Amino acid sequence: MTSFPSLHRAARLLAVASVSGLALLAAACSSGSSSSAPSTSGAASATTSGAPVTLRLGYLSNLTHAAALVGLQQGILARNLPSNVTLQTSTYNAGPAEVTALLAGSLDAAYMGPNSAITAYSQGNKAIRIISGATSGGAAFVVAPGITSAGELKGKTVATPQLGNTQDVALRTWLSKQGLTFPGPDGGSGEVTILPEDNSTTLTSFEAGTIAGAWVPEPWATRMVAEGHGHVLVNEKTLWPKGLFSTTVLVVSTDFLAAHPSVVTDLLKGQLATTAYIHANPASAQTAANTQLATVTGKPLKALELATAWSDMTFTNDPIALSILTDLVHAKAAGFKTTSIAGIFDFGPINQLLQRAGSPNLAAS
User: Fold this and answer.
1) Are 278 and 70 in contact (CB under 8 A)?
2) Domain 10-136+245-356 is of which CATH architecture?
3) Residue range(s) of every CATH 3.40.190.10 domain in the chain
4) pLDDT, tens digit (0-9, with 9 covering 90-100), for 267-304
5) Do residues 191 and 146 lie in contact, with contact meaning Cβ atoms separated by under 8 Å?
6) What b-and-e string marks burial along 296-322, b requiring 16 or more CB atoms within 10 Å of the CB?
């Protein structure tokens, strides 16, 4: 199978996840209340006694956003913010919708896919910074029974979560490498039709047979297999050296970072503590993620689906920067308008925390 370009230091960078997370485990391990309420802890911060601040955080209702799901349900993110900061959250189907909210000033920070972060940086005149990773893996191309090769997709319609999101670009990149044509971002025709739609609609469409497959994040890939009786044609891990690639990162608006740097540092404390909790308590973390999913979607995952999807992901504070640079190449090749992303990474705040914990720094190359 054709591989994406190599990531020379990905394996070393990914190791930062468990080291840095476990070093901060003590900050994370008790459960808490909803993160939409003001935090009640006295976490050390320059803003602890300052004026009220609202931190508006976006995330997707996918398991690939387990850092947000677990961090919110367990109260870890809120607990690491000072008492004058109110954490206000909102959920989205896919990253491009978060991009719109960020650029409109409706969000201050967000968990999102790397391609969406690239779009926000390119279209927003460097309006965001990637400050941490969250998840590697957890995306697949699931197709209907009987489809076993790329050539059998000719004349078929396949789906992605949203035009220009991370899975949409991955699908376009893979189809191109298979020699198949498809409409570009601005329309046109091709051998394969790509239909952007909500993940829940994709599952329904797949079960009804109106689409032949979809490149989706977890838990939707697992649900398409279990409930839609499809099979995995491409697990995206197989396209990256050592199976390492960024699926979810944490970004912050440059305006919020400039105005409230200590709040961003406290948010990162929560991110590190959540990763540590996930590593130390995998069963409890799965339950917490499922509980939060049920809160925002109205329906929990089945136990087997949850376990299967969870096993396909690695939770890491490392955004695997080299894979994101590769994502930029893919997005350009797929016809999306992007610019140089030099400066998109700001690892200063998280590296300060990692240094205090005696862990290696993150690197942007």
Assistant:
1) yes
2) 3-Layer(aba) Sandwich (3.40)
3) 10-136+245-356, 139-242
4) 999 999 999 999 999 999 999 999 999 999 999 999 99
5) no
6) eeeebbeeebbebbbebbbbbbbbbbb
CATH number assigned to the domain covering 139-242: 3.40.190.10
Q: CB under 8 Å to 207, separation ≥6 — which residues?
A: 227, 228
- The dihedral over CA atoms of 235, 223, 176, 124, expressed in degrees to the nearest 10, equals -100
pLDDT digit string, tens, across residues 31-54: 333 334 444 333 434 444 589 999
Q: From the DSSP assignment, how many helices (H) and strands (E) are in the chain?
A: 15, 11
Q: How far apart are CA 329 and CA 325, in angstroms?
A: 7
| Calpha distance 158→336 (Å, rounded) | 19
Residue with tokens 């942007």: 364
Strands 109-112, 246-253: pairing is antiparallel
Rounded distance between C-alpha atoms, residue 321 and residue 114, angstroms:
9
232, 218 in Cβ contact below 8 A? no
Average pLDDT (223-227) is 97
Residue 242, token pair as written in the block: 């050592």
CB 309 within 8 A of CB 228: no
Cα–Cα distance, 24 to 354 (Å, whole number): 9
